[in-house]
Write a structure and sequence with these properties.
By secondary structure, this protein is an alpha/beta fold. 50% of the residues lie in helices and 17% in strands. It contains nine helices and eight strands. The strands form two sheets. A five-stranded parallel β-sheet has the order 2-6-1-7-8, sandwiched between helices. Strands 3-4-5 form a three-stranded antiparallel β-sheet. The longest helix has 17 residues, at 103-119. The protein is globular.
Amino acid sequence: MINVAIDGPAGAGKSTISRAAADKLGFIYVDTGALYRSVGVYALRNGIDTKSREKLKEALPKIKVELGFKDGVQHVFLNGEDVSDEIRLPKSSMAASDVSAVPEVRSFLFDLQRNIAEKNNCIMDGRDIGTVVLPNADVKIFLTASPESRAMRRYKELSAKGAAVGYEEVLSDLKERDYNDSHRKIAPLKPAKDSITVDTTLLSLDESIEKITDIIREHM
């Protein structure tokens, strides 16, 4: 199996670029951030403090997260309900950052991620794929862009879906999540030592997809 790990901060375009690259290569795409967002959504819906390790541990047996496909597009299911849109809201992003710092949550989702990688040629994106989840991945890429560029992309994405959010709010949330993700004790956001860094600040979406796909092909 060929495994590709793509890590990077929030709003870097990991999901969109990874999904498109996987489609071009005929690989399975795994959005690990969506899994953490789903746990965060469960906590928010049930009034659980997203920073409470004990409360989250108690909740895990009640949570079932699955990846599925509708019309060829990956969807995320939380206890059988499609939450693909809800997990993209800013509050879900912040909740995901909180719950991902809890060791038991990471362990809960770890086996699911590893099992998919063992059985499929896949592109998996997240915050610690190349450093923790798939340390022996065939290709490791650290995808990044300036905070302002990432915030504008996320703002346009949310606005297109009808979410009532402002650019400054998105930028503030993104910078806070950057800090939280890179300073957490468990699997902090950082490039793997053998990863290739790609900055997409000045690249269009198509250019970014082409660059990532070319890198993967070169190392296959």
